[in-house]
Amino acid sequence: MHRVTALTLLKYKRWIDAGMLCAIAATDARCYAAERRKMLRLMHHVHVTDMIVRANLTGAEPPYSGVHAGRVPDAAALMLSMHACSNWYVEHASALPPEAWDRVMTYRRTDGKMMQASTLALVEQVILHGTRHRGAVSWLINACGGAAPQDVVSGFLRESLRDIR
């Protein structure tokens, strides 16, 4: 994966995560309370993982002790947190010089094991990790009578092109 591709996919991730959270917020909380909790829990898990990887990239202490840590916020609060995190990734990736993408860093996983990975490998993890979980969320949204956003890159690219015209 190249820097430009990674940056485009990080922007796509920001776009589709926001779309999923909007669709969750539109789901009837009274009729589908348990399903809505599952949707938010899955999206929160994606966010927690993104925040842990962000800490690994910066050498900071991870804000969570595990990938299922913390109280799941409501849809509005989660949207704000995820959007801020996604913006950080886009800005961080935009500012990285080409040689930084191959830099290998050592970090401690939440299970205590030491790992090594390049900046690019960690960014790829962030890009790819949520796809499986968004698929489950999409299924739940549709099962609750909602309309899940199309989780396809081509839709994002079409919309992005429309925005610059």
SSE layout and pairings?
Blueprint: H1 3-25, H2 33-58, H3 75-95, E1 104-108, E2 114-118, H4 119-143, H5 153-164
Antiparallel strand pairs: 1-2
Supply the number of helical segments: 5
Q: Cα distance, first to last residue?
A: 27 Å
Strand content: 5-15%
Task: Characterize the overall form.
Answer: globular
Q: Helical proportion? A: 55-70%
Protein structure class: mainly alpha
| Strand arrangement in the largest pleated sheet | 1-2
What is the rounded Rg? 16 Å
What is the strand tally? 2
Mean of all residue-level pLDDT scores? 92
Low-confidence segments, given as residue ranges, are: none
State the major sheet: 2 strands, antiparallel
Pattern of helices and strands = HHHEEHH
Quick synopsis:
With 165 residues, the protein is mostly helical.
Structure description:
- By secondary structure, the protein is mainly α.
- Helix content is 65%, strand content 6%.
- The protein is built from 5 helices and 2 strands; from the N terminus they run αααββαα.
- The protein has helices at residues 3-25, 33-58, 75-95, 119-143, 153-164, and strands spanning 104-108, 114-118.
- Strand 1 (104-108) and strand 2 (114-118) form a beta hairpin.
- It starts with a helix and ends with a helix.
Fill in the keyword field for this structure.
single chain; 165 residues; mainly alpha; two-stranded antiparallel ribbon; 5 helices; 2 strands; globular
